[in-house]
Amino acid sequence: MANRTTIFAVLILSSALFSCNAAGPGPSGGAVFNVLSFGAKPGKKQESTQAFIKAWNAACNFNGQSTLLIPLGIYKLGETIFRGPCKSIIPITVQVQGTLQAVSDPSAYSGDGWISFDSVNGLILTGGGTIDGQGRVLWQYNNCKTNGNCVLLAASIYMNNVNNSNVNGINLINSMGFHMHITGSNLIMIHSLSITAPGNSPNTDGIHISKSNTVEVSMSVIRTGDDCISIGQGSTNVTINTVTCGPGHGISVGSLGKEPKELDVKGLIVKNCTLLGTTNGIRIKTYPASNPSRASGMLFQDIVMDNVMNPIIIDQHYGTKSTKPSLVNIHDVDYQNIRGTTLSPIAVSLMCSSQVPCQNVHLQNINLQFKGIGRRPTSVCANAKVGYSGLQIPPPCKI
Ligand SMILES: *[C@@H]1O[C@H](CO)[C@@H](O)[C@H](O)[C@H]1NC(C)=O
Ligand SMILES: *[C@@H]1O[C@H](CO)[C@@H](O)[C@H](O)[C@H]1NC(C)=O
Ligand SMILES: *[C@@H]1O[C@H](CO)[C@@H](O)[C@H](O)[C@H]1NC(C)=O
User: Fold this and answer.
1) 254, 310, 355, 384: which one has the fewest Cβ atoms less than 10 Å from its Cβ?
2) Residues lining ligand 2, CB < 6 A?
3) How far separated are the first and last CA of the chain, in Å rounded?
4) pLDDT of the residue at 21
5) Which domains does the chain have, with CATH numbers?
6) pLDDT at residue 29 in the model
7) pLDDT (tens digit per residue) in 342-390
8) Which pTM was predicted?
9) What pLDDT shows up at residue 44?
């Protein structure tokens, strides 16, 4: 480790070198790369994409602690890729204070993300600002309702091969596609996000996670037109803690089994979450006629459902009309302390694959009340080995 004096000297030198044009000293002594110094133009008209990329490259290549600063103001951005690996001291901070507004032309986006982080180890994304995907103008280009092979519009924040990172205190609104998509990444901590899009906006998932290990989402409020958080193939060791969802489609594992040779989902904890008026509560969904894979080791604990259409649901015939069974094997799933109200009388629906039945599913202390007149809440099951303990409203499936 370098001694204090050396680090101090380097910081003085670096801020002296940069402060006159592009960078100034940062709060922790590192250098701050302000997008304004790289030509960003706040205001609603002119695009600032190149200025943002230049400022990132300078911050990322800086030989010390660095922060990319986006001060207050509205910045128009097209496709923006923040690429690593960085030479700066880990972590690099991106401080978003202003509002980023997506260019509302769909041809401006060629890939999976509007704002992408690629191959970065150690990122802090924070600052209280707003990331506005301009979905209100772009949703008309989504044709997924009529085309099963549609290409989703870009995610507002796309992270690929990002490790050891923390995203917090950001507002995401009206994404054109997903609000956040995390893939090929490890150890991502997400907290205190606010994600908002209308309940009828298409495919505006809050956070989609795939092919990643150790992702934690906590203390966030997510209101969208699609899944609140969706856990796709290859997700392992994911924790969702103290998240409020709704409107939207609830917290989902899947959809799984659409692609050939999918990776398993293993290790998911969803705890202390609230679902408000969502179409599904906690759902596992897999395509029929799929290739084999597994989804296992899942715990759903202390969940409140408030007027949720399908509070607890496993659906292995998701997405297409094929009658061939899914080969995604779901096992070791625990539901504990799930309470609240169901909008449909079928409060628990465990419809598993005839080819690979669900094994070791356990429900403990379930209290889902149906407020409709004349019917009690019920459970339906198929091809599921289910154990029960504690209170059961609805009563267990009749086998
Ligand atoms: C992230 O971690 C994975 C697994 O350890 C590694 O293969 C990858 O190179 C790392 N990426 C970066 C950008 O450090
Ligand atoms: C799983 O995630 C937790 C944090 O949520 C972390 O402390 C733990 O080390 C992770 N385990 C593995 C095997 O990656
Ligand atoms: C559970 O969630 C509520 C908000 O719904 C929060 O106030 C409380 O701190 C959370 N408890 C724990 C143990 O995380």
Assistant:
1) 355
2) 213-214, 216, 237, 239
3) 65
4) 46
5) 2-393 (2.160.20.10)
6) 64
7) 999 999 999 999 999 999 999 999 999 998 888 899 999 999 999 999 9
8) 0.93
9) 75
Q: Is 208 a catalytic residue?
A: no
pLDDT at residue 374 in the model: 80
Ligand 2 centroid from CA 215, angstroms: 8
Residues in contact with 68: Cβ distance below 8 Å, sequence separation at least 6, in sequence order? 33, 35, 55, 56, 59, 82, 92, 93, 94, 95
Is the predicted pLDDT of residue 114 greater than 60, yes or no? yes
Read off the pLDDT of residues 293-322 as tens digits, 9 standing for 90 and up. Answer: 999 999 999 999 999 999 999 999 998 888
CA of 245 to the centre of ligand 1 (A): 31
Q: Which helix (DSSP H) or strand (DSSP E) does residue 376 occupy? A: none
Ligand 1 pocket list (CB less than 6 A)? 84-85, 119-121, 161, 163, 186
pLDDT at 220 over 60: yes
Ligand 3 and 274: CB distance under 6 A: yes
Ligand 2 centroid to Cα of residue 368, in Å, is 31
Query: Per residue in 347-370, is it b (16+ CB within 10 Å) or e — as a string?
Result: bbbbbbbebbbbbebebbbbbbeb
